[in-house]
């Protein structure tokens, strides 16, 4: 393996001079800098970026901790793409740590990113409690920003949306179209946003004098396949419903496929709506009515706070009802 000393020998300079060139110091003469750069190219030397930044007591790394259980689907693809694009624009590098399948592993992933001397860490928590996250924020030597949670003690380190209010708005919209027999496909058990959406379905039906029919409730896992299976089950049990509200767009698209295969036209016979406003929802037929969750703005706001951008939008971030073709008034 080529070392810094090899570069120094090739360039005919000291190891300290090579180090100053690599660290961008202005104390090196132009001719010596050119010799060092040429030697680096000739030897194929690759500097240890982490060691360099530790020596300089600064870092251009931004950490991101998230469970691999959440990777699948356009929602989190958009989040990671938005994070990488924003970080690149600010000349930083994204370091990702998998928080895996438990609170302990989630904590270990965050600690790993802190030990890597990241300038800050963004966390999309799945397992740690609010109290545990509050304690980590307060003890961390670098800024920690928590996505999709409103912390109790460190609200300023939370970037979140009001899922309950957004879900109520969606349910009220369907009810305003005359729908009373609304089936609901929930997300994975334990999800806070999913729980908010399920509660809004129940509460919204009761507020409009239409008690929620638990036979119209099916549980999914956020995937298109689970939305498809849930809708097949609803059709097989022969209960009447005029609309399906899925807790995310992927499950809503699965529901549309199941309805189409059964010869049921959307929205002429059954309306379908979802949450997230994923890109694919605008390109299916009929285009999907959905509640936009600003996932890219969420992660970019967290990164902006880490980088000292005081213009970041404060939480809760705004959601938006996106009305397209998959919902129609009840005939």
Helix and strand composition category: alpha/beta
H-E order: HHHHEHEHEHEEHEHEHEHEEHE
Number of helices: 12
Alpha-carbon Rg, integer: 25 Å
Tell me how many strands there are.
11
CATH class of the largest domain: Alpha Beta
CATH architecture of the largest domain: 3-Layer(aba) Sandwich
Overall pLDDT, averaged? 90
Q: How many domain units?
A: 3
Sheet of most strands: 6 strands, mixed
The CATH homologous superfamily of the largest domain is named Response regulator
Shape verdict: elongated
CATH fold topology of the largest domain:
Rossmann fold
Helix content range: 40-55%
Low-confidence stretches at least 5 residues in length (pLDDT < 50)?
none
Termini gap: 74 Å
The share of residues in extended strands comes to: 5-15%
Spatial arrangement of strands, main beta sheet = 7-6-8-9-10-11
What does this entry show, briefly?
44% of the residues lie in helices and 15% in strands.
Structure description:
- With 331 residues, the chain is an alpha/beta fold.
- It has 3 domains: 44 residues, Orthogonal Bundle (434 Repressor (Amino-terminal Domain)); 99 residues, 3-Layer(aba) Sandwich (Rossmann fold); 139 residues, Rossmann fold (3-Layer(aba) Sandwich), CATH 3.40.50.
- It is 44% helix and 15% strand.
- It contains 12 helices and 11 strands.
- It has a 6-stranded mixed β-sheet, sandwiched between helices. It has a 5-stranded parallel β-sheet with strand order 2-1-3-4-5, with helices on both faces.
- Strand 6, helix 9 and strand 7 form a beta-alpha-beta unit.
- Helix 1 crosses helix 3 and helix 5 runs parallel beside helix 12.
- The longest helix has 16 residues.
- The radius of gyration is 25 Å and the shape is elongated.
């Amino acid at each position: 393996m080529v070392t810094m000393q090899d570069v120094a020998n090739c360039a005919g300079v000291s190891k300290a001079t090579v180090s100053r060139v690599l660290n961008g110091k202005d104390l090196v003469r132009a001719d010596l800098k050119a010799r060092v750069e040429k030697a680096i190219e000739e030897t194929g030397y690759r500097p240890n970026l982490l060691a360099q930044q530790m020596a300089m007591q600064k870092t251009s790394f931004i950490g991101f901790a998230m469970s691999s259980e959440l990777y699948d689907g356009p929602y989190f693809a958009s989040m990671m793409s938005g994070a990488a694009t924003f970080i690149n624009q600010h000349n930083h590098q994204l370091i990702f740590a998998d928080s895996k399948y438990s609170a302990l592993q989630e904590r270990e992933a965050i600690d790993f990113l802190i030990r890597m001397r990241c300038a800050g860490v963004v966390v999309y928590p799945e397992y740690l409690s609010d109290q545990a996250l509050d304690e980590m924020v307060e003890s961390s030597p670098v800024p920690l920003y928590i996505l999709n949670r409103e912390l109790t003690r460190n609200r300023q380190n939370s970037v979140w949306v009001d899922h309950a209010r957004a879900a109520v708005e969606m349910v009220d919209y369907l009810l305003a179209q005359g729908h009373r027999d609304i089936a609901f496909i929930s997300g994975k058990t334990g999800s806070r946003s999913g729980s908010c959406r399920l509660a809004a379905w129940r509460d919204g039906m009761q507020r409009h004098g239409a008690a929620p029919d638990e036979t119209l409730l099916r549980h999914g896992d956020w995937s298109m396949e689970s939305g498809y299976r849930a809708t097949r089950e609803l059709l097989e049990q022969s209960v009447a419903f005029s609309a399906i509200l899925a807790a995310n767009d992927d499950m809503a698209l699965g529901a549309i496929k199941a309805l189409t295969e059964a010869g049921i036209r959307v929205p002429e016979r059954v309306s379908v709506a979802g949450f997230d406003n994923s890109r694919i929802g605008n390109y299916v037929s009929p285009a999907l009515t959905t509640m936009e969750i600003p996932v890219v703005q969420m992660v970019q706001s967290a990164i902006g706070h880490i980088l000292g951008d005081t213009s970041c939008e404060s939480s809760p971030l705004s959601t938006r009802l996106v009305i397209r073709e998959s919902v129609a008034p009840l005939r």
